[in-house]
Amino acid sequence: MAKKVLVIGQGGREHALVWKLAQSPEINKIFAVPGNPGIAGLAECVDIGAGEVDKLLEFALANKIDLTVVGPEAPLMEGLVDIFEENGLKAFGPSAAAARLEGSKVFTKNLLKKYGIPTADYEAFEDIDAAKRYARTYTAQGKAVVVKADGLAAGKGVVVAKNWDEASRAIDNMMRDRSFGKAGEKVVIEECLEGEEVSFFAISDGKNYLPLLAAQDHKQVFDNDEGPNTGGMGAYSNPPVYSPKLYQQVLDKIIGPVIEAMAKEGCPYKGVVYAGLMITREGPKVLEFNARFGDPETQVLMPMIKGDLFPLLEAACEGKLVGQAIELEEGACVCVVLASGGYPGDYEKGKLIEGLEKLDSDILVFHAGTIIDKGRLLSNGGRVLGVVSKANGIPAAIEKVYKEVEKISFDLMYYRKDIGKKALKREV
Ligand code: AMP
Ligand code: GLY
Questions:
Q1: Are 354 and 370 within 8 A, CB to CB?
Q2: Nearest protein Cα to ligand 2, atom 5
Q3: What is the pTM of this model?
Q4: Is 12 in the pocket of ligand 2 (CB under 6 A)?
């Protein structure tokens, strides 16, 4: 009892995690590094960067932190969890070796192939000419092809090329011009899958897992999925595409097998399994895995968890998920991200945010890019706030969230007007 928790990160995802953990009767203190003004209402924010692993370790040891929850992927890849565990600290997230599930597309595709887990056909290349020859086998048949940099490339390392010109430009860009540095030393060239995209989240202790639920992100900046990709402009939980049959397929063919495969490969996976899936006519196939919670998806997941999240995260760290259960709420959540006009390109900061006090009490607002300056709440990033409603279904949640969003304003505020629309199409 009276546990101390450290949450690493500063976005809407971390605000949602802190909001959920703050409800735990087992926790008496939450620290967040570096946190944000929204998180500051629930936790003590400490000015250490999410990537400053040595300072984080020093802080966690000095403050006798019982559990550290890692938000973003970068500290995972740098081995934060390994270093914390070597020092006797519990940290929820995968080791650096297991985080390759997100950090290396070549590693993951080879793992999926070896263990027969459904994914797009592909080949991995270190040689630019060979990569191009393989890409041409698709484009010569008039098929699109997907070019992926092996490593992390700030969400820009995947190009869905509709024709040869686009494919060859993407390969040159990654392998010859090294636009993403070392991340483009190797590439994966793969079949373009058709279907509906959905993300599925589960928590693993290395051997066993607890399924959370599915969510759908809206990556592109403009309505109808147009314009450049962003971190995510909105999300909803419990997408209607996710039938009980599909759910079972995802668990039996993807989530269970990948956890087993990672253990067999000697790098058991502990933490969040975030599977990006394409629901094709042949069933669900893996597009990618992430080694962390999604943002904004976490903002529509946390309010759906009925009980206490803390014991589950702690049990995952101790390898004791067997016998645990996650109880979920009925209905669904919808999150609309309020962004700075211009994002994901150039945008202005420092705009006064108004209207939050007018919101209905059952609306949640998670801060992403905000700052307090002389007592005033100002915008301070591309994604500024996530506004979340929960209702008995997606249509009601959409109606409510947009009614509330209209009460909030800041100069050049921009948001998508069609979050959840895809789900409505399916429901009618
Ligand atoms: P990834 O980072 O691998 O998830 O790729 C980013 C986005 O590219 C995904 O969310 C999909 O929209 C798209 N994508 C990736 N791989 C494929 C594929 N094989 N077929 C179609 N679209 C894809
Ligand atoms: N919303 C996409 C991500 O968290 O990667």
A1: no
A2: 294
A3: 0.96
A4: no
